[in-house]
Amino acid sequence: GIVALRKVLELCLRHGARLANPGEFTLRAFLNGRIDLTQAEAVLNIVDAKTEEALKVATRQLEGSLSKILNSVHKNLLDVVSEFEALLDFPEEEIEETQKEEIIFRLESTIKELDELLEHSREGRLIQEGIKCVICGKPNVGKSSLMNALLGKDRVIVTPIPGTTRDVVEEIVDLHGIPLRIADTAGIIETEDLVEKEGIERAKREMENADLIILVLDTTQGVNGDDIFLLERIKDKNHIICVNKIDLKSEMDLEVVEKKFGIQNVVRISALKNQGITELKDRIYSLFLNEEIDFSIPLITNLRHIEAIRKVKEKVLVAIDSFKEGRYLEIITQELKDALSEVSRVLGREITEEVLTTIFSRFCIGK
Asked: Does 195 have pLDDT greater than 60?
């Protein structure tokens, strides 16, 4: 039990042991050269993984999928820099055309490797961070029922009484490998109830920070001023309009609603009967991705890596253009050295104490 564990821990501490710092075991593995920094960061991604696919992506990074590509990029750049420095040491020797073509080919091959990583960086970020989705609407239109339907379980209390949900309720759904972070919010209306007012203000704040807003309309009530107010509020954000309770008699002309707000933005559902939920999930997915994610390729999930790889690409492109135009070799070499440094920083070969502290402070105790 927990009491016995606590006693053992206290005894160990009394006899000279200490609690591990956040990420200390992973940090030691990195400092001892057992893993590079991308692999160390993958440990945190494994701990934070919200879906099975996110776990697989993080595990592959820990196994070295990203390291392999970056080490290849580093080697190519280092080889070219070495050639350029040799040429600078012997300025009387001119670069032969075949040698020039070979160098350009190697640098352009490096760009292709970087492009393959950057091409799928958006998917990587979505897998890591997820999609923040807020469900909003008037009271009693079925927001909580919709959240339960998306979750596939009764997470939120559902009653016929308007205003049952007064705070923001958050859960995560696995949407084809992407964490869909759903927030069910209080019904938005004019009210004098102080508790309900606070819930509505929180709902509005959630809407401001959302990647996607799902507005729920009740087909048995029709569209009124409260719905129009919300429609105006969300029109400039990613949004889907869910017309709920289609299993009941409708007071709404659904075709008019679809024509007015765009058929691509409207999904007909019955949250209680679980009708239209699969279509809604597919619609959400297609809003953010054009095709299914290929989880077999290395996916960058870390913003630090993405920004550094973009910088590497920019510098290599400048070097290629400068080399083709016959500019000073010293300047081209410096561009490639700067690119090398960026790659080294991602791998942890050139890293400051401050950056290391920032990275490992996000770990929990131990690890």
From this structure: no
